[in-house]
Design brief:
Length: 333
């Protein structure tokens, strides 16, 4: 059975606060564990009213503390925003508390706008240091070597699994060069998906962490009892991406009956391009869609994204995906 995992943006809906969003994410993580999902990741975003996962390592600790077996991690930590030593200490602490269950996915984007980037005290040029920072972080999580003056405590010797995240060819090349697993953000930036996967698999060099390439691919999935119901639920996602196109963001909005009345033709084109890899429908529609997507990408694992207004509908969507997943196992080969 192809592993399936969840990327949770900890969405905040209209009329609620981050407190409610975080509690719902814990509930979803607990359900995901019961449904058989492999890992549950949250992502670092700043100054976004619809996303409550800015303090990513804190959220991971909350979710890991409320679950028992599912892997929990970052999808990802935006490493140029931080000192590698601080991240090694944070994730070394998490690994010490929840051994064998923590993942460290790394990205090089700021995860925010330019003004907030300055508020983070980040130098915009730090992104150029990303490969070096990854190597430094690896060394801090590795066993201590003779003469090593700076240690991550907790952290050293934990060897928390590192993933490289990306939506461009840069991440694919870096993951391949370092022999690390690679996660592609095709759930919102699909343009370079196939070229990135090709480069990653072709250029991959085995490492201590990973003997052969391992690619996880993001996909939006909204599943419901009927195609019509799923399409209506999906209008929340479509509104959200339309608002991004408009440059205004905002909390998640309730689904609507006619999305065509919400966006302009130009906004529809832009939002739909970002949402190209979205599978929306009933069990059978979702099964066929996932089957086709796995066949196209030859993904080793799927990272499913589903940000809905109604929490019960969101849980149900993930339950349906887990139910149909065994039926697509033969399509990867």
């Amino acid at each position: 059975m192809i592993p399936i995992s969840i990327l949770d943006l900890v969405p905040v809906i209209l009329g609620e606060t981050p407190r409610e969003a975080l509690r719902k994410s814990l509930d979803l993580a607990q359900h995901a564990e019961q449904f058989g999902y492999t890992r549950y990741w949250v992502a670092e975003h700043h100054n976004m009213t619809a996303i409550a996962s800015a303090a990513t390592s804190v959220v991971i600790g909350y979710l890991a503390g409320g679950t028992k077996t599912i892997r929990v991690g970052s999808g990802g930590v935006m490493l140029p925003n931080h000192s590698p030593l601080v991240i090694a200490e944070q994730f070394g602490t998490l690994e010490s508390l929840y051994p064998g269950r923590i993942d460290l996915g790394l990205g090089r984007a700021p995860g925010t706008d330019q003004r907030t980037l300055l508020a983070l005290r980040r130098d915009p040029n730090r992104a150029d240091d990303f490969p070096r920072d990854v190597l430094e972080l690896q060394a801090l999580l590795a066993p201590v070597v003779l003469g090593q003056a700076v240690r991550a405590v907790p952290g050293y010797g934990t060897e928390v699994p590192i993933w490289i995240l990306g939506s461009s060819l840069f991440g694919a090349e870096l993951a391949a060069a370092l022999g690390l697993p690679y996660a592609f953000a095709s759930h919102f930036a699909p343009a370079a998906l196939f070229e990135a996967l090709e480069i990653y698999r072709k250029e991959f060099k085995p490492s201590k962490q990973l003997a052969s390439p391992y690619a996880m691919v993001g996909v939006n999935v909204v599943a419901a009892e009927t195609d019509e119901e799923a399409r209506r639920l999906f209008t929340t996602v479509q509104q959200s991406f339309t608002n991004l196109v408009r440059g205004k963001g905002g909390k998640l909005q309730a689904p609507i009956d006619n999305i065509e009345e919400y966006w302009t033709p130009a906004e529809k084109r832009q939002a739909s391009r970002m949402l190209e890899y979205s599978i929306v429908g009933s069990r059978e529609t979702v099964r066929r869609g996932l089957e086709s997507f796995v066949g196209l990408t030859k993904a080793d694992e799927l990272m499913v994204v589903c940000s809905l207004y109604d929490h019960a509908a969101r849980v149900k969507s993930y339950e349906i995906v887990a139910e149909v997943n065994p039926q697509i196992t033969q399509m990867k080969t």
